[in-house]
């Protein structure tokens, strides 16, 4: 298969950046999108292209580490659903297509280089309260508190978030509500996380606001963009948790 | 019981295994080692390199105790360490299933699974602390699978006859890592840990023969930085990417441990690598990595190839579908060869059996390099919904990659490089041969011998990080309470930083024709062909010569773009690859030395008439620990003899 890739090139955070077009040929259907970028990069290195190879984040290449990102033809993680960019295969594109590739666009994710953005704000939000305050050792037996299967499953569903940031990047407000809700919900559904639920919700929401993430206007693009299909139902839970916490104040 | 009494042959290898009955060793050791008071802990600094299960758990536990911790990782967040990709589960000897499991049984299974090439005392301790890990994770809010009564559920993994594996669908590693990462975050928020993501360790700094710090490269700016501490812990994972194609993540590498090796830490059992039987087969030459299909699938999946060549031909030409081949025309070769364990034999055994069928011409894809993993009988027994609940995300992943729906047609699988049992040699305290330098998780060689059992790496990483290192490191740090913080202006830091800078400049000066990936792919082919699933004397010699030639070619003909002081992923790759050549050479050397077959190390010269591994217990019941002797010298082999007081030395038998 043959394609033309229109790729965002930006030298560093200060550079204004712009698109460059690269034709690429002889790509097989079973090649992944990132493997295609590898092939292009090998060529750019060999040719001694003045901008060098295209920088992009990736690691596990199986949809679980959350490192890969990219807007592909204007969509986070590309046109296929329920996957990350690294799980996107070229059989999803028409032969001869021009494909536009950009970094996450969001004021909270500044570009580092080309397609690589800084997502440390997500870590900061979790540091504000996305944990259970237990130290290592001295904890009860794992079966001491039975947990209804339903609750454990729901917690796991929320906990499937891979922290890629697609929900933020896909939201016109750059809201991190789904990201925060997923963590709050994952812990609030379990007895172990329930004790600190009020403080947790408040602290994480406050941190999110402080870091410049926008407000949620309930459109639901975040769920659609989420490669793990984390449900916006968790946002309702977060809102409830947050309100309850505020009422108690 | 056969007693083989031997002593450590090498003076330099002191394993520090405590005396006494196996079940009392760890307890007694903890009583005997020194501790550090809370006031003194605040004055001590520890560097942890790596934010996977090993590193994150260690950093969190050390910070909770009061030490000042700095943690480093390559990715933009510790949550992305490759531990996140572990699918199947984590073992513990809880015996919740009431199937007569115990610490002793987990210990025996692990020793036997490792083909009697691991230390009894270490393995027993691992089994002993396994239960604490599950308790800890549940307390952190890790949503492990539960049954309808609200209690924890278990599944089986290879090499055992009990159900002791805890899991969270096919996302166990992710969930455990989120637990450890949350504990880490809590300590970062408290100011007890400083986190340095996108920082790669490029050298170890030693002062007065002790580990005192590291040199890192800031991956955003390219700046070289110095970090000092009272002790250094490396938890940088495995080096499977020496093979280019593996189930490891793209950034997995062996550079941190390799730099430690070059500074004097011995390297243990470098040739012990694990080939995982159930990976998605290679699809073509544009491929960058291989994807694992979890071992847990072997609970319900049955592995087979057709009995008749004619069916094989038709499958390869897409003339029939696998589901059309009748039951009696299928060869369930694991069930046939290993009736007692069936599809749940250990990984090395399953991998070789699959390769044997493919080599005999029964491989079911075009390339002749695939066997079936079939869920049809489980689906008809349990219903599709149960299977979905158990493996939903794995089936989803398989379909996304291959375009085949595994609920309808069987999966195709083939063995691939997955895990490295070898790593830095450590004593019972997890300290390397360099005082003050510790290695934990996959980065050390410690507990798995010649073959690791499934669901035991997560257990080992968290055992090391939460429950072993935080105790044993105190024994060393107790002697450092008078020492001021390490001064990074020391000449040793200057020298190490200069050396790194020179190495980087050297790479840029080559100005050759081929990018790093080109050489990496070539190295991978050599490694897989000669130091892969089946090894022999001739091939290993060939590997040694060819790796050396390729390495020369790399240093003469690498094409690197950009400059040192910028975000430069090509430079990152080239630096890691430069080390992979040297590691590959050591792996071949070690494989050549070990003239026996054991676990994942299969020397073709040493096999039974029916193709099973043939160990040589008199000749090779030792850990090989290699000492670096300089750029142009052959490394020196030290042997740590192993002895087995509790699990009788016998050939592995999964047949009856
Ligand atoms: C696909 C897959 C599935 C698996 N499934 C299972 C399973 O079901 N059960 C099981 O028990 N085991 C499983 N394993 C094995 C297990 O996941 C790993 O052995 C284990 O997680 C390794 O943990 P670790 O902390 O040692 O290393 P990792 O998780 O690999 O972490 C290494 C860390 O070190 C950092 N790092 C590396 N080099 C440097 C450097 N030079 N400088 C700074 N930082 C560095 C990395 O960024 C990372 O943070 C699986 C492995 C794979 C690949
Ligand atoms: S590279 Fe890990 S999720 Fe895509």
Structure report:
- The complex is a heterodimer of chains A (249) and B (656).
- Chain A is an alpha+beta fold and 249 residues long.
- Helices cover 35% and strands 11% of the residues of chain A.
- Chain A contains 9 helices and 7 strands; from the N terminus they run E-E-H-E-E-E-E-E-H-H-H-H-H-H-H-H.
- Chain A has helices spanning 33-47, 120-127, 149-158, 166-169, 177-188, 191-194, 197-210, 221-225, 233-248, and strands at residues 3-9, 18-24, 71-72, 75-76, 98-102, 111-113, 116-117.
- Chain A is elongated, with a radius of gyration of 20 Å.
- The termini of chain A are far apart.
- Chain B is α+β, with helices and mostly antiparallel strands and 656 residues long.
- Chain B has helices at 25-32, 38-41, 53-65, 103-113, 120-139, 172-189, 255-262, 309-316, 333-337, 347-362, 376-382, 384-402, 457-477, 491-510, 516-530, 537-557, 569-593, 617-620, and strands spanning 45-49, 68-72, 90-91, 165-166, 193-196, 199-207, 210-218, 224-228, 231-234, 267-268, 273-279, 302-306, 330-331, 371-374, 411-420, 423-424, 437-439, 622-627, 636-641.
- In chain B, strand 7 and strand 8 (224-228) form a beta hairpin.
- In chain B, helix 3 packs parallel to helix 13, helix 15 packs antiparallel against helix 16 (537-557) and helix 15 runs parallel beside helix 17 (569-593).
- Chains A and B meet through helix 1, helix 2 and helix 3 of A and helix 3, helix 5, helix 6, helix 12 and helix 13 of B.
- Bound molecules: flavin-adenine dinucleotide and FE2/S2 (inorganic) cluster.
């Amino acid at each position: 298969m043959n394609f033309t890739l229109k790729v965002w090139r930006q030298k560093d955070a200060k550079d204004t950046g712009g698109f460059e077009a690269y034709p690429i040929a002889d790509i097989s259907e079973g090649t992944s999108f990132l493997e295609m970028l590898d092939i292009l990069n090998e060529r750019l290195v060999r040719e001694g292209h003045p901008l060098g190879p295209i920088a992009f984040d990736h690691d596990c290449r199986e949809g679980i580490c959350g490192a890969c990102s990219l807007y592909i033809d204007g969509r986070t993680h590309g046109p296929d659903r329920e996957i990350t960019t690294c799980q996107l295969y070229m059989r999803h594109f028409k032969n001869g297509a021009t494909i536009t590739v950009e970094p996450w666009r969001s004021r909270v994710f500044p570009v580092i280089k080309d397609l690589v953005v800084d997502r440390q704000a997500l870590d900061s939000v979790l540091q504000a309260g996305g944990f259970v305050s237990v130290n290592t050792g001295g904890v009860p037996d794992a079966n001491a508190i039975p947990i209804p299967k339903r609750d454990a499953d729901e917690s796991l569903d929320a906990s499937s978030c891979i922290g890629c940031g697609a929900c933020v990047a896909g939201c016109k407000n750059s809201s991190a509500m789904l990201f925060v809700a997923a963590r709050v919900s994952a812990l609030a559904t379990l007895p172990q996380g329930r004790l600190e639920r009020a403080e947790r919700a408040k602290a994480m929401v406050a941190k999110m606001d402080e870091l410049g993430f926008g407000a949620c206007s309930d459109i639901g693009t975040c769920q659609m963009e989420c490669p793990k299909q984390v449900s916006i139902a968790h946002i309702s839970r977060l809102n409830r948790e947050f309100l309850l916490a505020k009422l108690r104040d | 019981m056969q007693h083989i009494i031997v002593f450590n042959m090498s003076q330099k290898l002191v394993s520090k295994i405590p005396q006494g009955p196996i079940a009392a060793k760890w307890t007694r050791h903890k009583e005997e080692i020194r501790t550090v008071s809370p006031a003194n802990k605040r004055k001590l600094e520890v560097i942890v390199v790596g934010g996977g299960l090993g590193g994150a758990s260690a950093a969190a536990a050390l910070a909770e105790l009061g030490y000042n911790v700095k943690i480093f990782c390559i990715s933009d967040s510790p949550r992305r360490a490759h531990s996140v990709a572990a699918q199947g589960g984590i073992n513990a000897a809880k015996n919740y299933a009431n199937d007569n499991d115990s610490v002793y049984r987990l210990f025996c299974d692990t020793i036997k699974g490792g083909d009697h090439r691991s230390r009894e005392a270490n393995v027993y301790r691992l089994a002993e602390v396994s239960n604490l890990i599950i308790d800890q994770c549940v307390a952190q809010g890790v949503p492990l699978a539960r049954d309808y009564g609200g209690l924890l559920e278990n599944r089986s993994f290879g090499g055992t006859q009990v159900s002791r594996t805890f899991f969270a669908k096919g996302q166990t590693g992710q969930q455990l890592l989120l637990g450890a990462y949350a504990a880490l975050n809590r300590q970062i928020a408290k100011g007890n840990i400083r986190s340095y993501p996108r920082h790669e360790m490029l050298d170890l700094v030693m002062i007065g023969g002790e580990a005192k710090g590291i040199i890192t490269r800031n991956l955003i700016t390219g700046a070289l930085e110095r970090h000092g501490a009272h002790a250094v812990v490396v938890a940088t994972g495995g080096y499977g990417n020496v093979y280019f194609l593996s189930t490891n993540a793209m950034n997995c590498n062996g550079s941190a441990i390799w730099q430690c090796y070059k500074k004097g830490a011995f390297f243990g059992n470098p040739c012990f690598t694990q080939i995982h039987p159930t990976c998605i087969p290679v699809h073509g030459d544009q491929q960058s990595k291989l994807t694992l299909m979890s071992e847990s699938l072997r609970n319900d999946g049955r592995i087979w190839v057709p009995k008749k060549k004619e069916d094989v031909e038709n499958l390869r030409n897409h003339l029939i579908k696998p589901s059309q081949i009748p039951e009696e025309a299928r060869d369930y070769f694991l069930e046939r060869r290993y009736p007692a364990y069936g599809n749940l034999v250990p990984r090395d055994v399953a991998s070789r059996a699959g390769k044997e069928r493919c080599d005999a011409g029964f491989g079911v894809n075009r390339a002749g390099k695939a066997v079936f993993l079939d869920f049809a009988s489980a689906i008809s027994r349990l219903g599709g919904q149960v299977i979905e609940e158990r493996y939903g995300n794995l089936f989803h992943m398989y379909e996304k990659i291959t375009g085949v729906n595994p609920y309808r047609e069987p999966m195709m699988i083939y063995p691939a490089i997955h895990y490295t049992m070898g790593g830095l040699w450590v004593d019972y305290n997890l300290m390397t041969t360099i005082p003050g330098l510790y290695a934990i998780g996959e980065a050390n060689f410690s507990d798995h011998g010649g073959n690791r059992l499934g669901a035991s790496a997560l257990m080992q990483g968290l055992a090391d990080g939460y429950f072993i290192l935080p105790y044993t490191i105190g024994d060393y740090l107790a002697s450092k309470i008078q020492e001021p913080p390490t001064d990074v202006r020391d000449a040793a830091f200057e020298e190490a930083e200069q050396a790194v800078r020179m190495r980087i400049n050297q790479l840029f000066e080559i100005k050759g024709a081929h990018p790093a990936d080109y050489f990496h792919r070539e190295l991978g082919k050599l490694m897989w062909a000669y130091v892969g699933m089946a090894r022999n004397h001739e091939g290993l010699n060939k590997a040694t010569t060819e790796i050396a030639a390729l390495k020369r070619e790399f240093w003469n003909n690498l094409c690197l773009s950009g400059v040192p002081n910028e975000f430069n992923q090509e430079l990152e790759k080239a630096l890691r690859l430069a080390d992979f050549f040297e590691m590959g050479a050591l792996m071949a050397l070690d494989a050549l030395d070990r003239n026996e077959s054991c676990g994942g190390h299969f020397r073709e010269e040493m096999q039974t008439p029916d193709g099973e591994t043939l160990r040589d217990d008199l000749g090779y019941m030792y850990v090989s620990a290699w000492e670096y002797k300089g750029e142009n010298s052959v490394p020196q082999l030290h042997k740590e003899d192993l002895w087995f007081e509790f699990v009788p030395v016998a050939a592995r038998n999964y047949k009856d």
